[in-house]
Amino acid sequence: MRLAPSLLFILVSCGTDVRSTQDGVGNSSDPGVDGGLKEDGGSSTIVADARVPPPDGIPPGLAPCDEAPYHSDFAFLQQSIFTPSCAVNGCHTGTSPDAGMALDAARAHANLVNVPSSQFDGWTRVVPGDPGASMLMVQVGGEPGPELEGFMPWNMPRLCDPLVDAMRRWIASGAPTQ
Predict the structure, then answer these.
(1) Count helices and strands in the chain by DSSP H and E runs
(2) pTM (two decimals)
(3) Cα 110 to Cα 170: distance, rounded to the nearest angstrom
(4) Residue 147 falls inside a structural domain
(5) Higher model confidence: residue 83 or residue 12?
(6) Domain with 35 in it
(7) Which label site among 101, 118, 167, 173 has the fewest CB atoms less than 10 Å from its CB?
(8) C-alpha gyration radius of the chain
(9) 3-class secondary structure, 26
(10) Residue 88's CB: how many other CB atoms inside 10 A?
(11) 113 contact partners, CB below 8 Å, separation of at least 6
């Protein structure tokens, strides 16, 4: 069993969320960057929760989960989540993207912000300033909402909490393009 701690370290380093959940739906008991989850499963994250970069800047070469605490910007989310995990062949890209939602760099913001969900009546993909009302947060396991078959991105490990928190901060800040 001596190999188990090493394997756990490798999985966590690669962004796989291997922690057990508190409620069985992905809400971890680890408070993470956002200071914890509210009783309803939502987060108390505010934009100011982003970590202040050191004077010499964000260290180069960090994995996305390690760099995420410094961000609340759309460019980082596009580069770290949407392009590599969502805008891939057969998913949210091309001429007929899943759910009519292309998440490539040229179309992601316009396909997310203030766009009604095509699959869940009464939900909006991203509601600027309101992560709890944003279906995107539900889809990645960051907020409660309609019952889902699993979390996005499909067939990939659940996004690490720091990436989900960066997404939450971006939405809380009004979901700007920059």
Answers:
(1) 6, 0
(2) 0.72
(3) 15
(4) yes
(5) 83
(6) 3-172
(7) 118
(8) 16
(9) coil
(10) 17
(11) 125, 126, 128, 175
Beta strand ranges found along 16-126 (DSSP E): none
Q: Tell me if 64 is assigned to some domain.
A: yes
Query: In this predicted model, what pLDDT tens digit does every residue of 120-168 receive, in sequence order?
Result: 999 999 999 999 999 999 999 999 999 888 899 888 889 999 999 999 9
What total of structural domains would you count in the chain? 1
CA-wise closest residue to 164 among 129, 144, 145, 136: 136
Q: Please check whether residue 96 lies inside any domain of the structure.
A: yes
- 18 contacts 12 by C-beta, under 8 angstroms: yes
Closest Cα partner for 80 from 155, 10, 170?
170
Peptide bond into 69 cis (omega under 30): no
**Residues 23-61 pLDDT 10s:** 344 433 333 433 343 444 444 455 567 888 888 889 899
Q: HSE of 122 in the Cβ direction (CA atoms, 13 Å)?
A: 2
What's the pLDDT score for residue 143? Answer: 95
In angstroms, rounded to a whole number, what is the distance separating the alpha carbons of residues 148 and 24?
A: 12
Q: How far apart (Å, rounded) are the C-alpha atoms in residues 78 and 157?
A: 18
Please report whether residue 178 resides in a domain: no
